[in-house]
Specification:
alpha+beta; 89 residues; 3 helices; Alpha-Beta Plaits; single chain
Length: 89
């Protein structure tokens, strides 16, 4: 099993055993300022909050979404994997 598969399996187990779905989930990402448009495009129309870092080189991006299952949480994280320099919190 690859590292990513193991990571998703652990996250699914954690969510399934500690959360009750559906629930309002807060996704938080840190991204280079020049890549924020990629996140905005992925989640257009969703409830988001974007804040600049102290020096403006990075932005914090919070997505608030009601999700029905751990699989939906994981799919959202997987959607962001191609964004260069993205950090998921």
């Amino acid at each position: 099993m690859g590292d990513n598969e193991e990571k998703w399996k652990k996250l699914k187990h954690l969510l399934d055993n500690h959360e009750e779905f559906p629930l309002k989930y807060y996704f938080k990402f840190i991204v280079k300022s020049e890549n924020i448009d990629e996140l905005n495009e992925l989640f257009s129309g969703e409830e988001t909050d974007i804040k600049d870092s102290k020096n403006g080189n990075y932005k914090s991006f919070t997505l608030t979404k009601t999700v029905a299952s751990s699989d939906e949480v994981i799919e959202i994280y997987k959607k962001t994997q191609g964004i260069e320099g993205l950090i998921s919190l």
